[in-house]
């Protein structure tokens, strides 16, 4: 898969897609810089009044519900409507989907609007798909092969029903559509100590979706590239603070040779 992932990254850098992000207040600067580092051009607009215009200049839309409000909710709906009308892909990051009833309702509404991809941890993804807050999933059940296989089978069925790609990220990442499952073990535990690493994965995935005709490959390439960059950044970092700096550098420096040497990916189906 390293050649396909390298080619997808090369296409992104050649196209330099504009990615419109409606994201949470905590990570705006982090994700904008990551998009620039990987080769895309970020827009971080939230005003409902300009959503249609902003989507018209973008190649993909990223929706992150980490700090929801009614103003943001209105902006999200207008942006998604414009993206669907213009045939542009959008990705949902249902941050803390089950933390409050308001947040779960919002994310459930967005699920019905047919995102091209959904990225979250196992708890967020399963909460979104079942409508019930849960802490169970591929991250907590990995000690049991039967439980893991059952969860992956369910996720693949739902991905097929929704015609979307699910990116379930954690210590091990699973990229799932109706026909394929990729298992990625790149990354480093220190990445969990930096706010916004998952949100960065989502934002980057928007850029990859804009640059590829294969959504599953686009999502797989995005998650793999971030994991590889995170590994290299952690090797150079003294702690979470310097990891952030090195992560941007490694995204910028990522090349074919590094992907070939470091990619840890298995296609399960």
UniProtKB/TrEMBL annotation:
<dbReference type="InterPro" id="IPR000417">
    <property type="entry name" value="Hyethyz_kinase"/>
</dbReference>
<keyword id="KW-0784">Thiamine biosynthesis</keyword>
<dbReference type="GO" id="GO:0004417">
    <property type="term" value="F:hydroxyethylthiazole kinase activity"/>
</dbReference>
<comment type="function">
    <text>Catalyzes the phosphorylation of the hydroxyl group of 4-methyl-5-beta-hydroxyethylthiazole (THZ).</text>
</comment>
<feature type="binding site">
    <location>
        <position position="169"/>
    </location>
    <ligand>
        <name>ATP</name>
    </ligand>
</feature>
<feature type="binding site">
    <location>
        <position position="196"/>
    </location>
    <ligand>
        <name>substrate</name>
    </ligand>
</feature>
<comment type="similarity">
    <text>Belongs to the Thz kinase family.</text>
</comment>
<dbReference type="Pfam" id="PF02110">
    <property type="entry name" value="HK"/>
</dbReference>
<keyword id="KW-0418">Kinase</keyword>
<comment type="pathway">
    <text>Cofactor biosynthesis; thiamine diphosphate biosynthesis; 4-methyl-5-(2-phosphoethyl)-thiazole from 5-(2-hydroxyethyl)-4-methylthiazole: step 1/1.</text>
</comment>
<dbReference type="InterPro" id="IPR029056">
    <property type="entry name" value="Ribokinase-like"/>
</dbReference>
<feature type="binding site">
    <location>
        <position position="119"/>
    </location>
    <ligand>
        <name>ATP</name>
    </ligand>
</feature>
<keyword id="KW-0547">Nucleotide-binding</keyword>
<keyword id="KW-0808">Transferase</keyword>
<protein>
    <recommendedName>
        <fullName>Hydroxyethylthiazole kinase</fullName>
        <ecNumber>2.7.1.50</ecNumber>
    </recommendedName>
</protein>
<keyword id="KW-0067">ATP-binding</keyword>
<keyword id="KW-0479">Metal-binding</keyword>
<feature type="binding site">
    <location>
        <position position="44"/>
    </location>
    <ligand>
        <name>substrate</name>
    </ligand>
</feature>
<keyword id="KW-0460">Magnesium</keyword>
């Amino acid at each position: 898969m390293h050649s396909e992932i390298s080619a997808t990254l090369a296409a992104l850098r050649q196209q330099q897609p504009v990615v419109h992000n409606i994201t949470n207040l905590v990570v705006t600067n982090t994700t904008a810089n990551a998009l620039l580092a990987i080769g895309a051009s970020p827009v971080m607009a939230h005003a409902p009044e300009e959503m249609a215009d902003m989507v018209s200049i973008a190649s993909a839309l990223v929706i992150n519900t980490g700090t929801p409000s009614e103003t943001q909710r209105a902006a999200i709906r207008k942006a998604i409507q414009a993206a669907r009308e213009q045939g542009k892909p959008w990705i949902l990051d249902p941050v803390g989907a089950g933390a409050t009833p308001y947040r779960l309702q919002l994310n459930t509404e967005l699920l019905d609007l047919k995102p091209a991809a959904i990225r979250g941890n196992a708890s967020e993804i399963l909460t979104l798909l079942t409508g019930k807050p849960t802490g169970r999933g591929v991250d907590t059940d990995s000690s049991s092969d039967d439980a893991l296989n059952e969860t992956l089978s369910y996720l693949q069925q739902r991905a097929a029903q929704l015609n979307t790609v699910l990116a379930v990220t954690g210590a091990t990442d699973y990229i799932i559509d109706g026909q394929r499952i990729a298992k990625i073990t790149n990354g480093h535990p220190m990445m969990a100590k930096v706010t916004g690493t998952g949100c960065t994965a989502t934002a980057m995935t928007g850029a990859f979706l804009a640059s590829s005709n294969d959504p599953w490959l686009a999502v797989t390439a995005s998650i793999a590239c971030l994991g590889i960059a995170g590994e290299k950044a952690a090797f150079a970092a003294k702690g979470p603070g310097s990891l952030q700096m090195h992560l941007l550098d490694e995204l910028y420096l990522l090349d074919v040779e590094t992907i070939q040497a470091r990619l840890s990916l298995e296609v399960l189906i």
